[in-house]
Design brief:
Length: about 120
């Protein structure tokens, strides 16, 4: 629940109603908003982006160009992270293939590569 309380504190969702026993009772709209936030977080959107998207969602007659722009920024970021991970994978495969545990530690290609970035073939 700390995450939900954080969302309340920063204004992404309204605080819930409380029962006499002080239990939280979220309204249908708040639960839908939580689903929206959860899905956006799963897709990697930042809190700021989610806040902007919620604000746009509250203005149904407004152009969706801003939502498209925010999504494009997220897509660009994801593609950059994927490219970085591919470079990382390439380097790890190269290190693994260079050693495969066939020798002794004093001649270990993995350890030598980790000790000297000059052994790396890709920027990661």
């Amino acid at each position: 629940m700390p995450t939900i309380r954080y969302y309340e504190q920063i204004g992404l969702i309204d605080p819930p109603d409380r029962t006499q026993g002080n239990q939280s009772r979220y309204r249908k709209e708040a639960l839908q908003r939580l689903g929206f936030i959860k899905h956006a977080r799963e897709l990697g959107f930042s809190i700021d982006s989610i806040s902007a998207l919620i604000e746009l969602n509250n203005q149904p007659d407004r152009s969706c160009a801003e939502a498209t722009r925010i999504t494009h920024e997220q897509l660009t970021d994801v593609r950059e992270r994927i490219a970085s991970l591919v470079r990382l994978e390439t380097e790890l495969v190269r290190m693994f293939d260079g050693c495969k545990g066939a020798g002794v530690v004093s001649n270990c290609y993995v350890l030598a590569s980790l000790a000297d970035h000059g052994h790396c073939e890709t920027q990661h």
